[in-house]
Write a sequence for this structure.
């Protein structure tokens, strides 16, 4: 135990640097995924048939193939098409495009449950379709989606670990380095597991806070204990 | 005579309106005229197309045949701007359909700022006066989830009124309410009728129909069976079906009316 604590202490500055990269990857991936995911959900629900088909195709493709394959195709594959991206940009892109497919489905579910009745109410006072979506449906759907969507940041944070395979210096890469240097893989990986866990706990706490902050007055009952 | 002529200005004219789902006609060849200041009540068994008729008038559903005019504008014509038409037709739904993430005040203000492009301060004043009109100015900052059903429906009425519509459509506005909350909504509607608002109301509230309606239209199986003044329909119905329906519905709802 003492040895392990020593290892943890020695490599902590390194782990913190790695954790910063991991957080960066999570934030950027989540943001790209949010933007594209929301567009995909809207396209799938309100778009013309060709756009709907395109959105469904995208979602099925990115949910149906491993993230690692997508990452390798972007980092090693795109250069042969004349597009060379740095490791970091490739990682952002793979994580973002992949997350978009999952986020799209969360958003779609929430928008559908707000239902066509709110659309009817919006149209009835003379709002256009897109204004109704913007002012009426999204503000409610984006609140409603939070509990389910909260899976995505947590899942993504841990998923970012695959990017060490294209030599991005994230938390996982630091663990590998520590393991090689100390000949103590168990201690090293256990150490980063603890760091990941702390990150997730903090993230989870933040998400719960977001959920509380955005609740619509009069609907608090849902989150109260009965 | 001149006065009557002025009074009888049609706001809404429906000619030969037919709506089909699949092969079945929901209603067919409906003719109806609503004059300025009139309160017309549509009654009839469920599933006879009353709600669909209102949705067609508001262009929320497309009619298959026939025409609708709002004032002199044919709103069923091709190239007619739906969103523009709907601004001038107020609609109140059975289940209120308030925007749950907005306060009562913001519910009423939204159409003013986003559709009519009013300045926020002006819209606020207007919205508050509409809430006053339905007796809810003290609930302006409440969210729908914090209001009773009756209060929610009154906010919905204020939301529709705020757009200064030419006509108000009510689709069974009290059907989703607890009996003790129905009165407050009917009271607001009665007041509107007295103020001269043009209204087309689908309801089972026979007391309201008898007292407030200028004309009652009995719709069954997708066509107008009979229409006339409340007295004519209640006391001298020409059609056997009208008599049967009114007898049945009075049996059902009559006791409640007497208790008021």
């Amino acid at each position: 135990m003492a040895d392990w604590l020593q290892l943890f202490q020695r490599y902590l500055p390194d782990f913190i640097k790695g954790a910063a990269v991991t957080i960066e990857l999570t934030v950027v991936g989540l943001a790209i995924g949010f933007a594209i995911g929301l567009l995909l959900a809207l396209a799938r629900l309100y778009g013309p048939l060709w756009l709907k088909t395109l959105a469904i195709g995208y979602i099925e493709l990115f949910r149906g193939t491993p993230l690692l394959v997508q990452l390798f195709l972007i980092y090693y594959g795109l250069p042969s098409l004349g597009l060379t991206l740095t490791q970091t940009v490739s990682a952002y892109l793979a994580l973002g495009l992949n997350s978009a497919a999952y986020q799209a489905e969360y958003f779609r579910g929430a928008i559908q449950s707000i239902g066509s009745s709110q659309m009817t109410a919006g149209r009835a006072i003379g709002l256009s379709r897109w204004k109704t979506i913007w002012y009426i449906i999204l503000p409610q759907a984006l609140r409603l989606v939070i509990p389910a969507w909260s899976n995505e940041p947590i899942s993504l944070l841990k998923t970012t670990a695959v990017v060490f395979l294209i030599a991005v210096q994230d938390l996982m890469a630091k663990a590998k380095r520590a393991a090689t240097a100390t000949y103590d893989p168990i201690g090293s990986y256990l150490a980063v597991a603890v760091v990941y866990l702390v990150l997730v706990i903090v993230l989870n706490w933040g998400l719960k806070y977001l959920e509380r902050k955005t609740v619509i007055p009069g609907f608090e009952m849902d989150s109260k204990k009965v | 005579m001149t006065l009557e002529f002025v009074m009888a200005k049609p706001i809404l004219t429906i000619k030969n309106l037919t709506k089909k789902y699949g092969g079945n006609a929901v209603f067919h060849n409906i003719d109806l005229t609503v004059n300025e200041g009139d309160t017309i009540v549509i009654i009839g068994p469920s599933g006879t197309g009353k709600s669909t008729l209102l949705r067609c008038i508001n262009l929320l559903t497309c009619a298959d045949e026939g025409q609708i005019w709002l004032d002199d504008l044919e709103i069923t014509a091709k190239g007619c701007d739906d969103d523009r038409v709907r601004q001038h037709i107020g609609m109140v739904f059975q289940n209120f359909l308030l925007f749950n993430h907005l306060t009562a005040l913001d519910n009423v203000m939204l159409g003013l700022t986003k559709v009519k492009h009013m300045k926020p301060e002006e819209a606020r004043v207007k919205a508050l006066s509409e809430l006053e009109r339905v007796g809810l100015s003290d609930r302006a900052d409440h969210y729908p989830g914090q209001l009773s059903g009756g209060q929610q429906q009154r906010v919905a009425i204020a939301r529709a009124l705020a757009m200064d519509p030419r006509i108000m459509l009510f689709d069974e506005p009290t059907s989703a309410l607890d009996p003790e909350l129905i009165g407050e909504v009917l009271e607001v509607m009665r007041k509107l009728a007295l103020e001269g608002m043009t209204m087309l109301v689908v309801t089972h509230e026979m007391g309201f129909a008898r007292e407030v309606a200028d004309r009652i239209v009995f719709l069954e199986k997708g066509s107008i069976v009979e229409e006339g003044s409340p007295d004519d329909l209640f006391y001298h119905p020409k059609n056997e079906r009208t008599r049967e329906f009114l007898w049945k519905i009075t049996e059902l709802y009559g006791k409640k009316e007497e208790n008021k």
About this structure: Residues 256-260 of chain B have pLDDT under 50 and may be disordered. The first helix of chain B runs from residue 2 to 7.
